[in-house]
Amino acid sequence: MTNARIVGALRSLESTVLARQGMALPLLAIAVVSAADLAAGRDHYIGPGMVVAPALAGITTTWRRTLLVAVLGLVAQTALAPYNGVTQVRDWVLLTGQLATYIVVSLVSAYIAWRRETGQRAFTAITSVAEAAQRALLRPPGDRVGDVRLAVRYVSAADAAQIGGDLYSVLDTPHGVRALIGDVRGKGLDAVQTSAVVLGAFREAAYDEGGLTCVAQRVEASVQRHVVSGEFATALFAEFDGPGSVEFLHYGHVAPLRITPDGTVTTLNPPDPWVPLGLGRLVKGTAVPWRSPLGGEDVLVLCTDGVIEARSPVDGSFYPLAERVGALVAGLAQNLEEAVERVYADLLRHAGGSLGDDVVLLLLAPARPPARPV
Q1: Cα 69 off chain centre by
Q2: From the CB of residue 321, how many other CB atoms can be counted at a distance below 10 Å?
């Protein structure tokens, strides 16, 4: 198990088990130590074990309640003193070191609780900003855009973030429904900035340009103009401009999959693969679009490499998307939310419950026309 997973497991323990117990665990500790001291008899003094109570409170409740637990523990030790034969001043003097240690531990525990509360408030604020940034940058669409139904799962691998280097967009334009999925090299703020450039250029060009090639060229020009030299993003453009087929344009991205109602999976490899966005200046020519048939009950699965490169902690194998997706998605063209949930759950099981990279799973299918009134 890696250090990151160990830290994640400890955080999960704190948030899902310890923090939910609140005052229960430290109060139970006081009761257990007191009962053990009474059961051990007058010849055994177990009072020093009371120090566990404020220590537990420091990770389960607020700093004020931690101090309250510390006081209750001190009261319990004082009440047990006569039972343990501490009745004279000289006996209390002998216990000064123990009491001093207890007080120090209590104060340190209260400080830890205060720092934890402060960190939680800061984390909540960061999460709120991340959510707002995600809505502004990604603008998640509804379950239907024009004549296309869709469902998506977007997961960022960055700590305390909900946006990363993966991107997608689905727009209803005068030229048909146009979709983009991409993956920016790297992570962090630089990747988010590049994502913003790509998405901004696509949202403008998708409405203005008459051909998918022209849309991609506008995005390429914007990346070369505004992104640091050497940075690039893989991308796959799609256009639903009529029934029965879909047009693709490939820029170094993961090939889409087509799933028929019976679960047959076809990998739609580009006949002329092209370099990622941002590297166009290094080659001559342009990317060439290609078409693929698309039945009314077919489902298109678009994803980023975080999906197909997710490794199993058992044997280190990559996630076999093309092998598994057929059975998971078959017959669900009109219920894509269930389909994407099945695929994502299967991906998590394969990866041992955690993903090491940003992930986008985008499922698209033709929408059924509304029924005519009888």
Answers
A1: 36
A2: 23
258, 322 in Cβ contact below 8 A? no
Residue 133 has pLDDT above 90, yes or no: no
Structure confidence at residue 160 (pLDDT): 46
User: Two tokens at 181?
Assistant: 């999925």
Provide the pLDDT for residue 124.
66
Q: How many CB atoms lie under 10 A from the CB of residue 297?
A: 17
- By the 8 A CB rule, do 252 and 223 touch? no
Q: How many residues does the structure list for the chain?
A: 374
For residue 212, CA distances in Å to 106, 175, 215, 238, 286 come to 66, 9, 5, 8, 12
Rounded distance, CA 33 to CA 47, Å? 7
Contact 265, 325 (CB under 8 A): yes
Alpha helices by DSSP H, 86-211: 89-94, 96-138, 188-208
| Cα distance between residue 272 and residue 281, in whole Å | 17
Across the range 202-228, mean pLDDT stands at 93
pLDDT at residue number 1: 44
Contact partners, residue 353, CB within 8 Å, separation at least 6: none
The whole model's pTM is what? 0.68
Show the tokens assigned to 173: 């334009």
- HSE-CB of 62 using CA atoms within 13 angstroms: 4
Whole-number Cα distances in Å, 203 to 137, 180, 199, 224, 240: 11, 10, 6, 17, 16
Contact 292, 248 (CB under 8 A): yes
Q: Cα–Cα distance between 62 and 55 in angstroms, integer?
A: 12
Q: What does the block give as tokens for 226?
A: 């505004």
Quote the tokens at residue 204: 């403008």
Helix extents (H) in the chain: 3-13, 19-21, 24-40, 52-60, 63-80, 89-94, 96-138, 188-208, 212-226, 305-308, 321-329, 336-350
Q: Are 237 and 216 in contact (CB under 8 A)?
A: yes
Residue 90 has pLDDT above 80, yes or no: no
| Lookup: tokens for 260 | 């028929």
**Alpha carbons 354 and 345: distance in angstroms, whole number:** 11
The span from the CA of 196 to the CA of 110, in Å, is 43
Tokens read off for 104: 């120090």
What is the pLDDT averaged over residues 257-270?
A: 96
Measured CA to CA, the distance from residue 226 to residue 242 in angstroms comes to 34
